[in-house]
Amino acid sequence: MxxxxxxxxxxxxxxxxxxxxxxxxxxxxxxxxxxxAEDINTIFRAAHSIKGGSGTFGFTAVSDFTHVMxxxxxxxxxxxxxxxxxAVDVLLGSVDCLKEMLTAxxxxxxxxxxxxxxxxxxLEVELNGEQANEATTTVEAxxxxxxxxxxxxxxxxxxFSPHTDLLKTGNDPVRMFRELAELGQLTSxxxxxxxxxxYDLDPEDCHLSWxxxxxxxxxxxxxxDIFDWVEESCDLAIQSLKxxxxxxxQYVPPVENKTETSTVETKKQAxxxxxxxxxxxxxSTKKEPSKPAAKGSSSIRVDTGKIDTLINMVxxxxxxxxxxxxxxxxxxxxxxxQLKNGLSQLERHTRELQESVMNIRMLPIxxxxxRFPRLVHDLSTKLDKKIELVMVGENTEVDKTVVxxxxxxxxxxxxxxxxxxxxxxxxxxxxxxPEMGTITLEAYHRGGNIVIEVRDDGKGLNKxxxxxxxxxxxxxxxxxxxxxxxxxxxxxxxGFSTAEKLTDVSxxxxxxxxxxxxxxxxxxxxxxxxxxxxxxxxxxxxxxTLAILDGQSIAVGDExxxxxxxxxxxxxxxxxxxxxxxxxxxxxxxxxxxxxxIVRMHEIFNVKNAQATKLTDGLVVVVDGQGMxxxxxxxxxxxxxxxxxxxxxxxYRKVEGVSGATILGDGSVALILDIPGLVRLSNQ
Amino acid sequence: MEELAEKSxxxxxxxxxxxxxxxxxxxTLGNEEYGVDILRVQEIRSWEPVSRIPNVxxxxxxxxxxxxxxxxxxxxxxxxxxxxxxYTALTVxxxxxxxxxxxxxxxxxxxxxxxxDVVDVDKKTIQESPNFGTKVSTExxxxxxSVNERMVMLLDVDKLLKLDVLEDEDEx
Lengths: 684, 172
Description:
The structure holds two protein chains of two kinds.
Chain A: H1 6-29, H2 37-57, H3 60-77, H4 85-106, H5 113-137, H6 139-143, H7 145-148, E1 155-162, H8 173-183, E2 185-191, E3 209-215, H9 220-227, E4 234-240, H10 243-251, H11 254-280, H12 304-329, H13 336-360, E5 362-364, H14 366-369, H15 372-383, E6 387-392, E7 397-399, H16 400-421, H17 425-430, E8 437-446, E9 449-456, H18 463-472, H19 484-489, H20 512-521, E10 525-531, E11 535-543, E12 548-556, E13 559-564, E14 568-572, E15 579-582, E16 586-591, E17 594-600, H21 601-604, E18 619-625, E19 628-634, E20 636-644, E21 658-663, E22 669-673, H22 675-683
Parallel strand pairs in A: 6-8, 13-22, 17-19
Antiparallel strand pairs in A: 1-3, 1-4, 2-3, 5-7, 8-9, 9-11, 10-11, 12-13, 12-20, 14-18, 15-16, 16-17, 18-19, 21-22
Helix pairs in contact in A: 1-2, 1-4, 2-3, 3-4, 3-5, 4-5, 5-11, 8-9, 12-13, 15-16, 16-20
Chain B: H1 2-16, E1 21-29, E2 32-37, E3 41-46, E4 60-66, E5 69-75, H2 76-79, E6 92-99, E7 105-112, E8 114-122, E9 141-147, E10 150-155, H3 157-161, H4 163-171
Parallel strand pairs in B: 2-10, 5-7
Antiparallel strand pairs in B: 1-2, 1-8, 3-6, 4-5, 6-7, 9-10
């Protein structure tokens, strides 16, 4: 039975990468003091699936490697091993290593054997070294009767009779035997009495059963692992070859025996490694710096809810279509109304369909954010800093392309904050700040823009230092007089770095200029707000071509505008008694205990023929934009709708008070208001 | 008959120096005739109501929905100070495209009185735009060409469409 396995590779890789993410998140969330067995279980399961999958597809390097990880995790799961920070770090390292291996395989490149072995060794040291130490303290655990079988002296006898449907479940006995053979000397006896006559034979059924004997010092877990996947679909009896006679013998020196077992294993692994690397070395040229684009088609995971909506809409579309064709079949003039109705329905469905299709491309920004807990964890350990990462607005939806292109610049920024922004704990305490530094990643929509902020409460940017450095590097003139903002902009210049010494984290002075270029190539801009000693905020503003926003459409004169629904607090009919004038001109009104400025839309946008010019005639919409509240005076509220944000800048330019545009149901264009911009505009 | 004569004339020139020929779309604004490189013309549409953009010069009429893209519409008459003409069903919008320095495509519609013709112009015969000092702004004019005894002013599309950016810089 030969199936082209390659067709499943893509799925395997996707699932494996997902599994790796699960492992990573799980490991990061492990609380050293109080480990939840279920957490470890989750990590273990992920590792196990990767191992199983890679074994099936013949990626032995991956399955071997995962196997070692799994052993470590298994011991943690059973409580035989303390979960230590060191162990977790080693495991995290191995997750990275696995990721590299899988990527290499996916790109059809050579796996970097040397680095894999390094990680593997670290794992084994962790596995064995710890075990030796631990064994003395927790002898009981090792000597528990159930554990005895763990290190059966000289092998196992396995009666393996699969059910007929074993092959259909995708399991291959031959692969399992191969794995067994790797553990020790394997003898197998096949019982083919169950095989029916040739005419009754279904080639997809399995009629064979085996009696297997593996000789060698093999932990039971290893054997169990191999049969783990088929337990459901076979009769299995595993017996130690010398179980009874071994009992006493084993009981006396459990410690040595155990350590011995593992060293033997290590040696064997080492041998395997050597041969592997010997085999691979002649072939493996140095890793090519540029990856070939052999990745195939990229795929996207979509919320089933979105797909359901799509299917519903297609259904409606079909109904409308059949209705229209019915009308068209025997058309008479009195059916004109029906035709018009049908056409407008068709138009609506098509538009909805279009919007939902675009919606599919939207991903929550958490796809980018999710990698940062790990990054912060690793770097803060490396730099001996105490840092907490806070993430806000992970569910903000962004177009897939933006998500993909955003991740590198963000990594740069977070690294910078970690390395240059947050001070060492001692310095922080001296400065009267909490020892634990905070980095906040926040994403939100502001009109047609998505804003992503990287905020830290570190030392902030020092204008003097920046300028001195820039003068030293000859980037600006010695007598240049820069504003704060201009001074901060210096960090975006190529070849600029203020770190006193270079670390491998950051400080090479490439980076920020690249970050800015990347952001600009996405059509966005980047802005720095900083206060010396208090921290700095780097805000990335990106225009969204495909973002969708809940909007409230309003009327001013003949014109329609959209206010982002999130910005609206309430709408009120204003009474003359609520209005106050400041210096005879600036109008404010009292809303509960607050005086808010009134922004007359028809005035600041010069709308002719506005219906309401007296405050009591129209409506006041109380809006909040970045903490600035005001009342927008408009003619009328029209309706709420989801609007697709289109960038004005793509073909035009930025307009003050407007963050973007959208296309209304009738095909006309409506502008989306930018509340903070409006407030600024009204102040001018 | 005249047209035929014109054609044969063009064909003759084509035979002579086909490499030097550039095609322009010519249109009129009042009594003046302008031309734009035909490769920059995306499409020609009739006037349709625009959504006004607040607080911009009056020649920037607003934006329209062009198959999902928001495209600004500029009245060239007003832009060149030729006065305003009521828009009718015959008013034409020429949609032009350009590439910014960042490599992004930009699209913009210009309102013209009417589109007249596609003309072939020999590159060599294009005359530099005369300098009137500050009296007449010729910044958008690339050169002058003579077509059938008429003068056609050839517009620099890049400059024309970049005008917003230039203005932004001025503001700063």
